[in-house]
Amino acid sequence: MNPSPLIAGLELGGTKCVALLAAGPGDIRARETIPTTDPATTLAAIEAVLDGWEFDAIGVASFGPLELNPAMPDFGSITATTKPGWTGTDLANRLKARYARPLGFQTDVNGAAIAEGRWGAAQGMATHVYITIGTGVGVGMIAGGRPVQGVAHGEAGHMRVPRLPGDTYPGWCRFHGDCVEGLIAGPALAERFGRPGKELPDDGPQWDLFVHDLGGLLHNLVATAAPERIAIGGGVIAAREHLFPRLRARLAESLGGYGSLAAYAADLDRRLGPPGLGSLAGPLGAIAMGLEAIGA
Fold this sequence. Notes:
The chain is of the alpha/beta class and 296 residues long. It is 35% helix and 19% strand. It contains 11 helices and 10 strands. 43% of the residues are buried.
């Protein structure tokens, strides 16, 4: 029997990158973390890790926005991003040229959502969502078992939602100001409240704003697709899992008992929670993309 293929998985995040050598969650051979700085320094450090590994394919799950259309000349590149210096960075072609291996390429949140469906809490589900809240806010939506993709991949993290009365913070996002990312991403919290989110008290009033703003995003996702499950991960929420009961209550209130969504709201303990794969959802998303690249 042939051994399981080994994948070099690369999860590129706004703060750090994770390189994982694995066949799946039960067979992880190596893991390295690289700070995300400028593209030249970051990619050179990633390649220094991969140069010491033997693998069958590469999977990339990256922050974006990304060009995911293979017919486009800049396929595999980061497009106009809030991450300084990374706009136009060609990821896929650089890695394929260096390693001559099959390569799977997706957004970090779509990759994590695919991993959740393959190994995590969304196994057997056709429609589900993964949200990450960290340096940015990303939303990966799976419908019919595949990521939702139109002319470009979705950017629901940049959705605008109603603000709490009296909240005048203009927002951190340099493209949209007070979109959801501009209100609740890590840098937005630090700017909005004068200190990083990790330093805010658990019972601080700042989380009332966070729950309200994230609740608006959740309402719109449920009203649009009624996903079977919504997983929320990323550095901001991972340290604040006590917020999940508040988010469920806010979402149920917002849905207002409307139609078939009344039954949905009554089942939020099961439908809304942390990723089944925990902090490995993102890195394993890259492994899932590498496995898809070789049809495994």
